[in-house]
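Entry 14. Structure prediction run on the chain below.
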Amino acid sequence: MGCDSSRPHFHPRVEVRRYTLGMGDNLHGQLGDGTTIRSLMPKQIGGDWRWVSIEAPSYRIQFEHSIGLKSDGTLWAWGDNDYGQLGDGSTTERYLPKKTGTDNKWVSIAAGDGHTLALKSDGSLWAWGMNDDGQIGTAQRPFAICR
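Output returned:
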């Protein structure tokens, strides 16, 4: 994916030689490089090559976080965590990828504005984070974890 300069908060990523790279805004550590420093040059995310998918909310979002899926089926998250969108049971920002839970049966991921969705190999859909508009599919508001 290329860099679109009309989308200043978007942090594009691209697979190069099996490494995942990110660049752009990094106010909440969403680049996963251990800092909150904006990067105009691509930087390696997470220190290894096992990423099969990385998702981040799209343009003009407020709660910037990233979700990654590794080839071993584990889920990782980093960045803003105001609403628990990283799924680690806290609201602490993470500047490096942190494993979410112990399961290794994740097959697909999506990141929204303050919430995360993930699909397991058994077909079950999980969601957590902000729920002020019911975006994670539960009646609990404004914050919930659906498992």
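The two ends are 31 Å apart (CA to CA).
Filed with the rest of this week's runs.
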